[in-house]
Design a protein that fits this description.
Layout: H1 8-15, H2 41-56, H3 60-72, H4 77-86, H5 89-95, H6 102-110, E1 114-116, E2 119-120, E3 133-136, H7 144-152, E4 162-165, E5 170-173, H8 188-195
Helix pairs in contact: 2-8, 3-4, 4-8, 5-6
Length: 197
């Protein structure tokens, strides 16, 4: 599995993403002069695509597959692609507050701590569906690190398409992701335009 090793905050700054979107706390601002130059249409489309890939931690080949899947489904292609990305298991675990970041969620999943409908799933790209129950494995609930993440931190706001029961280490997908549930600035139409050339 490929992994980006570029410093996270440097990448956030280059793509214009608030580190809070990635699950990282308050970051101090430094007084730096920003050089602004007019970007070409292609450059802005590429930036939006790179921003989405970076937020969800998806490599190019897999991201292209999500785009191809979105074009075959009914609805607006950009929104369908966002729904697919949001329904990834690692993102659902992050949104439920079972992990502080998406990378941490990927690690929990790959180590076998997460179950979907009672069955262990160790693939972070697994696409969840409405009605799926996501929970922390029974044996893993007593682990100090997992307890600290789920019960120790402040309660996270859960999107409307999910239900969370922190005390029982479970969550449920209760609806389809709406465009209004996406809490970061993204112009998905530019990504569609990038791929449709």
């Amino acid at each position: 599995m490929g992994k980006s090793t570029q410093p996270l905050l440097k990448r956030c700054k280059a793509l214009g993403i608030n580190p809070l979107v990635m699950g990282y706390g308050k970051v101090s601002k430094r007084n730096q002069k920003e050089v602004r130059r007019k970007k070409s249409e292609y450059a802005t489309q590429l930036d939006e695509k790179q921003k989405l890939r970076f937020i969800y931690g998806v490599l190019e080949k897999q991201f292209r597959r999500y785009y191809d899947m979105a074009t075959t489904k009914p609805g607006v292609t950009g929104e369908v692609m966002l729904q697919l990305l949001e329904s990834r298991l690692d993102n659902v675990v992050f949104r439920l507050g079972f992990a502080k970041t998406r990378d941490e969620a990927k690690q929990l999943i790959s180590h076998g701590h997460i179950t979907v409908n009672g069955s262990k799933v160790d693939i972070s790209s697994y696409l969840t569906k409405v009605g799926d129950v996501i929970s922390v494995k029974e044996k893993s609930r007593s682990m100090a690190g997992i307890k600290n993440i789920i019960l120790g931190g402040p309660e996270k706001s859960i999107p409307a398409w999910l239900e969370s029961d922190r005390d029982n280490f479970t969550g449920k997908v209760v609806g389809v992701v709406a465009r209004s549930d996406i809490d970061y600035p993204i112009k998905e139409q530019l990504v569609v335009e990038y791929y449709s050339k």
